[in-house]
Amino acid sequence: MSHLSRTLPIKRAAHVYLVREGQLLLVEERMDDGSIFYGLPGGKAQAGETLAAAAVRQVLVETGLTVTDLMFVSLLEGELLTGTRNECYATFARFTAEFHGELDPTDPEVVGVKWVPFEMVEALVRYGPPPEVEERNPLIWLPTQDFLRGKIRSYYSI
């Protein structure tokens, strides 16, 4: 019996926990279905780009802030969205950083940027349909839940 082999696309992304006085900076993005998604600033790495460089670039376009002194917090990796059209092998890094500048997003998908008290962050996260959307997968939010509770782990396997 031969084993079926498959090649999964690799998705590399990096997001940054920007913290000010017990608040976490979240971006509001409009999803394809018209709903609003609250997420961490950051996003996909481009070909040949390090995860740290992707974090700096994406935070700038999504928030207008310049981040410096990136510090690694956690890595989340594994197969994501298996059996859907967005199936991939995910490598997602989370950092914290110093930041400066004014909130001024230039990413057309970002409809807002807001500081949210730690205790209110999880209430803004929407899980569930459509299932092929990674941002609504509860596993993606485990590192953030732990970060907000001060229980930081460096590695998460999906």
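The record above closes out task 2.4. Task 2.5 opens with a second protein, given below.
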Amino acid sequence: MTQPPQTQAVQPTTSYAKGDIVLFRDVEKFWLGKPGHTLVGRVERSWRHADTGKVLYDLVELSGNRHRAGIDPDYMRLLPPADAMHDIDTAPLSEPDTAAMTPAAVAWLRQHLAQNAAELPDQR
């Protein structure tokens, strides 16, 4: 009887640059099933572990400005700006009710209108 050929899953390697915004997991909390294990952080630096040679990252947790050292990139995912700005890009601008827009879209519109208020004609 012949065995089917074995395939090995290859995990793509991702490297992160200083300033990248990432979603990361507190590994211990995650595997113990504790709440608050998934966080957002900003990459501060990368370094290679002296014993294992694995590249690890130091992050600043954005929700508390707390430094987190030695984060394993297997538990990190990049948060692309396009995803973060999706709600603004897809806001229903023709909608007369601003409650139908997400808060981020409304905030962007208010800021944009405030910056250009000097260019608008006087209201009558």
